[in-house]
Amino acid sequence: MRKDLLIAVIISFALAIAILSLPDILEPIAKTILTYLGAYWVLALFIIGIIHGLKPDEHTWPITVSYGLMQRSVRKALLSTSVFAGALTLVWASLSALESEILPFFSSYNLDPYVDIIVGITMISVALFILNAGRKGKVESADYRVIWIHGLAAAFGGDFIVVLVLTALLISMIPANLGFMIGLLFGLGSFISQALVVVLVYKGVLKASRDFTIMERAGKYALFILGVFMIFLGVYSLVTS
Transmembrane region positions (predicted)? Predict the structure, then answer.
């Protein structure tokens, strides 16, 4: 097997296993942290966000790692992660600010499977476009506009509900005009952790491949493989729900 494809398969398999093996633990952890640090809610939200970014998540790692590997420097890998995490944070901050209007709807409907499928289709489409452009001799890497769209879509996954829960728990403790801070701090903490994960994977894969071109192609293949995984996860959730 080609080295780039082998690296992509290993990364994709590792992320898929990590995601499937880890139950949804963020919500109970968040409630526990708020119980002990409620008076210091700014710190509590930041810590919860950091935990979110470190947790293997189908709406973060598959996208941030894949796009990060396509970049030609650690700085650009951090930029691609910043774009994605920025989109997440924007949605979550808006969500916590508008809690009272949207909580009844999103508490009644599970959007996770649909988000998985949409994100998966987008990942496959982008991967195919980039790979096809590469075969034609054009240099194509991650489009930051697409990464931004991925972030907006991924923000409506399972942790969307976590932000709702955090807002419901804190809304009586903080002024209403600071509601946006809940999603903002959660997102900033998550960004820091996601950036750390991307940098560590980037440096590790570059050291293993010893060739940026191989690593870049591995990132494109990983994006495609993990996109298929996301669609499978969404369909499976729909069938078994």
Answer: 33-54, 74-94, 114-134, 146-174, 180-201, 221-239
Cβ atoms within 10 A of the Cβ of 43, count? 13
Distance of CA 39 to the CA centre of its chain: 29
Phi, psi of 98 (to 5 degrees): -110, 25
Q: What is the dihedral of CA 95, 122, 191, 110, to 10 degrees?
A: 40
Under 8 Å between Cβ of 85 and 191: yes
Q: What is the pTM assigned to this prediction? A: 0.86
> Residue written as tokens 């994977």?
201
Measure the CA–CA gap between 214 and 207, rounded to whole angstroms: 11
* Cα–Cα distance measured from residue 72 to residue 69, given in angstroms and rounded to the nearest whole number: 8
Locate tokens 């935990």: which residue?
51
pLDDT tens-place values along the chain, 241 residues long: 588 899 999 999 999 998 888 777 888 888 899 888 878 899 999 999 999 998 888 788 889 999 999 988 899 999 999 999 999 999 999 988 887 555 555 555 566 788 889 889 988 988 888 887 766 666 556 678 888 988 888 888 777 888 888 888 888 788 878 888 999 999 999 999 999 999 999 999 988 888 888 888 899 999 999 999 999 988 988 888 7
